[in-house]
Design brief:
795 residues; binds alpha-D-galactopyranose; six-stranded antiparallel beta sheet; globular; 32% strand; eight-stranded parallel β-barrel; alpha+beta
Length: 795
Amino acid sequence: MKKLLIQACSLVIALSLTASGHDATPDQGGKFEAGKNTFLLNGEPYVIKAAELHYPRIPRPYWDNRIKMCKALGMNTICLYVFWNAHESEPDKFDFTGQNDLREFVKLCQANGMNVILRPGPYVCAEWEMGGLPWWLLKNKDVRLREDDPYFLDRVDRFQKAVADQVSDLTVGKGGPIIMVQVENEYGSYGINKPYVATIRDMLRKHFGNDVMLFQCDWASNFTDNGLDDLLWTMNFGTGADIDQQFARLKEMRPESPLMCSEYWSGWFDKWGAAHETRPAGKMIEGLDEMLSKGISFSLYMTHGGTNWGHWAGANSPGYAPDVTSYDYDAPINESGQPTQKYHALRRMFAKYDKKQAKIPNTIKPIEIPEFELTEAAPLFSNLPEPNTDHDIKSMEQYGQGFGSILYRTTLPELEDASLLTINEPHDYAQVFLDGKFIGSLDRRNNEKNIALPPCRPGAVLDILVEAMGRINFGRAIKDYKGITDNVCLTLEIGHRHFTCDLKEWEIFNLEDKPEFYGAARFVPAKSLSKDTSGRLPRGIYRGEFTLKKTSDTFLDMSAWGKGLVYVNGHPIGRFWEIGPQQSLYMPGCWLREGKNDIMVFDIIGPRSTRIAGLDKHVIDDLRVSRARTHRNEKDTLDLTLQEPQLSAAITTGNGWKKLILDTPATGRYVCMEFPASNDGQNIISIAEICLCDETGRQIPREKWNVIFADSEETEGNHTADKLFDLQESTYWSTEKDSNTTNHIVVDLGAVYKIGAVRLLPRMEPGAPGSPARIRMYISGKPMIHDKKNGPGIV
Ligand code: GLA
């Protein structure tokens, strides 16, 4: 084992000794181009078999091993994103060292005989904080992200130049391994703006020169919206998709273009509080086999996902769905670098096309490490930093803070009766305290904003502790401020009338996710603290040491801890949250030491025990939420008695978007859709995406949509009703098998709109399984839900 680690750690030596196995002639430079229906590498037809890997998600000492694993699988290329925010944590302070050493990673790919596809964004999505954009862009409140905004474009240009300074001499034309560079990322899911995409293209041309091939990736349903004439177009789609259908439009428009699926999704990512995602190996392999048999190039996203260390996990939207620390992705190589059954099955299939497969390298086997205790504690409320004061409450970014938690404090007048506190909006997890007593929490995932306060004395201290989770990485909501983003108000009921006032005069305590903050704490023996009535120790910082006789990878069991972040030997290991599905954190052996190791945990809820064990198996599939995952309260029934449908229409069979126009546009905030039967006669309805258009045909924003009622949802495999507008074509809403309902769902659009049409996308698998045969749509100013307790019209 030790030998293995030493091998993995001595990359630099290995690099200088390994002769380049790259197919192109490295010294003179090669040529990669698009020929007639095929790529050409040095004039020869070439099928790209790319493995997506993200170097910041893999411990640097393991980079070489993971690249070799991809090669042994049968891949010839590594496809990688460059995360802008990891490289430029403060404006103009670029870091390309250690985990961020892009150049070294690219050279290592070359040393292993692999080509590289570089995807420098600036936006990348990738379930990474803010889709790779740096949070500090938000200090400029008017910034228009991913648009022709002079400030944004200036910052992008500096970043692209910094990336090019690292690797522009490593393009295939200059003897390096980089065969293609991607322009932006799936811009079609954000908007229509060819001039912006063209600006990014021109920047890349300026910094990388004219000899490297530039390309764009998007979905089959929207690539024409932003496709530039002089760029190669590639499609992204997932396991199970109808491959011919995915390329049909591209073939029509550019009959001679080489075909490539630039992201073929091997699995999917996990969100806190939602079931662990998996995708079947068989279907994935069938798709890749089909592509290879047709000479179609691909990149398998992810071949190895790795880990969202520290605070780097992003969040999905619409709604708010923060991603977990593990980016295992149900990929062929799992989070800790082990080949899975998917890996072996895929390798067997690849052997049909390539008889000379490289040998699978040795892997590091995870071990158990003895349970240890964090013996010191620094309770949060006795370790607050010096506060700032402010008349109005502001977001974290406006106080110059990017990550971590923030505490807002003010005092209240005497309140003889209970009142209602409203926080607009708590991003992302707020805990409310009155005179130091915990009142309750507000979770952005559930759109919670209101909390009842008990009567209080004059001058009672109100504390609101807000923890920031990942910034949204998808859709228009990426401009995602943290802390409290707007205001806090109190509503009192006096003589049956409601009075609301804005709370002002705040003290602000910045609890940044930085070693300086944790290091300044005054620790006491953890044993001196007692548990509260719910069995928790105080929220705060916990510290300990553990001694190891031998090191290897392990998984830290965090299941007795509440919610927060872990650091081991100074390495940010990631976020934990008791709700799951992830209960253990991947702890790479290369960051452990024989002898003494130190660990620090910041827990904003409070642990139930201060002990942690190292497991030899990862626990990423243990969901512990009591809340139902469906979108229907048991007591709710649908009430359409006073409604006439504004649309009643048949829907054609087959894949691709369907548009249905209302005879007369209708106005309302609530939309009830009814799907009485499916086209395939099975008793299941499935739909990938739904959009609404206004009377001019423009799409109505989906960021504030919320499903308030669904009479059937499949909870296995995450096919709940919110998948209807998660902007992901590969995930879909599905009713339960034989649910015997008429399949209604009610969506709150978040504001009143005039609706002229509905667009609907069936599943992308062949034959569009479960596509509805009919739609009836009701539009109203009221929710159309009958709640047995409160009567009609109450949500
Ligand atoms: C899209 C994005 C990727 C990633 C996947 C989902 O294809 O381009 O960055 O977010 O979705 O994992």
